[in-house]
Amino acid sequence: MERISIESFFTSETDLEMNQYRILGGIREVRSNFDKKKIYPSLATLIELKRSIDKIKDERNNLDEKFPKQLKGFDIKTQKVIYESSHNINHNYNIEEIFTLIDWALPYINDAIDEGIVLFDFVEKNITLEQVGILPIYKDEGYFMVTDNPGFKLQIHRYECTLFSSGTERYRSLKTKFVKSERQVIIKRSAESIKHELIKERKDLPNPATFLFDSDLDFPFTETIFPVVKRKLMSHIAA
Predict the structure, then answer these.
(1) Dist. CA 64–CA 94, nearest whole Å
(2) CA distance 62 to 97
(3) 218: Cβ–Cβ under 8 A, 6 or more apart, which residues?
(4) Residues 6+ positions from 21 with CB-CB distance below 8 Å
(5) pLDDT tens per residue across span 204-239
């Protein structure tokens, strides 16, 4: 089953029922990932799809003049839909049929997004955040440790938070780099001792901001725990 995206609506078959079947299959695949407690990339994909659909619906009055053209992407700076001519588009495929498909799919997409957000909120509430040692004034670089329960490990990562501008808006970007992992045993090393070891090993951060994220959840690390931790870290730094 193909992954659902905005192209699912603009490169469709002329048969409405077949299109509905394909799109519903893509949404079912996303919800299946949620059932497996896997949040990403499914939730981010759905949210981006919803934003794209909302953008297209806002520009609906202009689409009649532009059609038949193929949706290529979005210009983030100008917030405009980008089109390109295509000889492969069926000229008999009416723009109203596309919006009929979009209007039919939106309730299913919204329900799936709501399910993903509920799962995200549950995970976030069940992950604790603690600062390790004294927190310096400069918090845009440092380390964070995360319990990886399925892997029986404590993962240690380095982070760097930067600001960038797009038009009149300012955004934060979080870069992370894996440092090492420690096997979780009955007698665990303290986060403080691990921090001191990092300082000795890496002289460029003599007084790093360091955080510990802990949870009892046995959820997938890569698809769920780690992405939620990064969002939580970003919010904490920006606060």
Answers:
(1) 10
(2) 16
(3) 149, 150
(4) none
(5) 999 999 999 999 999 999 999 999 999 999 999 987
